[in-house]
Amino acid sequence: MDEVLLPTSNEDTAAEANGEPSIRIALARSQTPRARVGVPGEAAALAACISACAAAYGVYFGLPLILVSLAATYGFANPDLGWISAAENVGLLAGAVGVSMLARGRSYRNLAGVGIAVAVVADVATLGVSRVWAFCAIRLFAGFGSGLCYSAAIAALSRTTRVTRNFSILAAILVVVNSLELWLVPRIAEIWGVQGVYVSMACLYLLPALLLMYVPGSRTRGVVETDVSSADAEAKVAPAVPQRLLGSLAWQCLWAVILFNLAASAFYAFSGRIGTSIGLSKHSVSNILTICNLISGTGSVIAYALSRRWGQHRPQLAALAVMIAVFVAWTFRLTASTFMIGTLMFFEVWTIAVVYQLGTLSNIDGSGRRVALIPAAQGIGQSAGPFIAGLLLAVNFSFSQMLFVASVFAAGSFALYAMVYTRLRRVNAQFARL
Fold this sequence. Notes:
Blueprint: E1 3-4, H1 10-17, H2 23-30, H3 42-56, H4 58-61, H5 63-74, H6 78-102, H7 108-125, H8 132-158, H9 163-203, H10 206-210, E2 224-225, H11 228-235, H12 243-277, H13 282-295, H14 298-310, H15 313-332, H16 336-364, H17 374-394, H18 399-427, H19 429-432
């Protein structure tokens, strides 16, 4: 079957030229069952982007157990650990914003390459510091490199046609990598110390460096196979969603991403400390986090299956409701058993929610401008979460009380996504079901 560019109207073309999302393109793209990334090929491009994302998020994946090792090695207190975690994520935010600002004139491939180089240098430089503020400065630099690499890879994936499928694959791979890191980090730390952990993180960039040539180098949308259903879907969209409304909803989604990641990272960053505070050993906590995270790989499959039947908005709201319920339950009873059960549920809904966050904004923002800011929004939330949690613990909040505050932020994310869904239903029920 011949390949053709996704058909657009003059109105859509003008909107895309102005950097505004197009409802027709979004609907046609979401309903086309067969798609390819285009040059240099789907498999190679996906492998390159996913390996870059996995390496860039390496430190964050192992953060709970890295913080435990830092406390044991250097004697850092909880507020210090919060600062270190926040510095890492502020750097990630800065790198993501940099990609959003520079992508128009530079290729995603080049930006990812610069990010890899910066992150590797910073990881190696970490070996020579032991004071908390020097550590924060180096990790800020490392986060910047990770942010460049991660954001460039995410932006490249968002320009593909089957975004929900591709982001589901990404989520599944990241779950496996996360599980391996949670299992390996304490074992590496025991043999080579926390310095060995950071050297290992630098080595993660070897694969994306080798595959760098396959990262899509431009902002050109992928091509799709000719499909009557996509053309019909484009022709039958009525009424169209006003461009200004779509822009407003895109920003609303970004705020929801910030609040979600703030809540999730507040728990995740201190999950190792929470586990040891209720009597679990470091190895037990490592095993719980590894097993629960590995099982959550099913979340990407569940997310994709539910989206085909129910769209993305309603399952996304359900996932957020479960996360809120878990945090509230921990507020009243935090024991070894509730920790294990709640952590399993947390990782499952986290995987599901992340897939929907990426897919929802990609459908709303046809221009891709605001999609490129998703890593920035994640970085803000992941920086603020550990920082706020550390401050709360510093003023003698218990872990249960801190988790209740996290549930409030999760509820804010739920409210924003509920508003997006409600506003879309009022204007275009078909688009609200995407």
